Amino acid sequence: MRSAATPTTDHVFRDESASDWLKSALRSALVRDPVDALNDALLLASVLEEHLRQILDLKS
Amino acid sequence: MAEPNDPSDGLTRRRQFSPRRGGQLVIGRLKEHGPANYQFRKEQDPSYYVRLLTSRGERTIWGKDLERAVREGETKPKTGDLIGARRIAREAVTVTTRRRDGEGRVIAQEEHHAHRTRWVVEKVAFFAERARLARRLRDEQQDTSEALRERPELRSAFLSVRAAEQFAAQRIRDPKDRERFLELVKDAMASSVRKGEPLPSVSLRSPPEHKKPASSQGPSQKREDPVR
Fold it and tell me: Which residue of A3, A42, A52 is in closest CB contact with B27?
């Protein structure tokens, strides 16, 4: 079995391969209410997935 | 989607998922994958699982063919990669169970019917590239030879469309029917390319040594049919 651990916030900030956009979003999210921030992040993930499906022209 | 009885032999019949309905593309970050008994229950048959972190949380998909799909994927997906997993075909299989006596003689035989699903597991970039190629295939203004120089793997798809055009020209009189037929073929080919399905194997025939009389057989009857 091969598995990938969930990275911590410190790991993301130190990770040179992580994008500036992600670091900036994480920095601004960490000062918000954590439940609101996670809700927004989940919504953002859904919206971005739908955007990707549009690009792939796959509506499944 | 789950296939607790996923045998590995006795293939009898194969069905493609409808190009319109298709198998759902599951998109997510590959968290882990490996062999395990189905649903991690010890009384279940050995299977293979792929666990993804999707935008809606974790999702685990099961299927014996997933092992091959991950291992043989064109983009060699690894844990941590953003991947897509899609069922591309469902094969009906018959598994024969034989009971033997102490001396190895068959004393009873039973046949079970089951299904085996074939998967494509690739990095999402693969599906994005296939989507681009599908659009190119659909683009009638595209210069075919230029496209084939850039993407030689599209040759079989172009040849299938070309064969369909020849078939339509010879066999379908009504221009509207001809147009409709070609639209369906192009849609099916573009859909296969977009979804990452294996492309039909079509090879160019060598020029005949002697000119043969015209055959009544259409081009599409001389090779495997494209995806319907």
Answer: A52
Question: For B136, which DSSP code?
Answer: H
SS3 B148: helix
- Rounded Cα distance between B156 and B112, Å, is 37
DSSP result, A19-59? -HHHHHHHHHHHTS-HHHHHHHHHHHHHHHHHHHHHHHT--
Nearest to A46 among B24, B30, B55 (CB): B55
Question: The complex's ipTM?
Answer: 0.70
pLDDT digits (tens, 9 = 90+) for B37-70: 999 998 888 999 999 999 888 999 999 999 999 9
Share of chain A above pLDDT 90, in %: 63
| Chain B residues with CB-CB distance to A4 below 8 A | 29-32, 79-80
Selected for mutation to probe chain A from B55, B59, B70, B136 (highest A CB count within 10 Å) is B55
pTM above 0.80, yes or no: no
Mean pLDDT confidence for B115-122: 90
- What's chain A's length in residues? 60
Segments making up each domain of chain A, as ranges:
33-60
Which of B25, B35, B54 comes nearest A60 by C-beta? B25
**Residues of chain B positioned with their CB less than 8 A from the CB of A46:** 55-56
Residues 6+ apart with CB under 8 A from A46: B55, B56
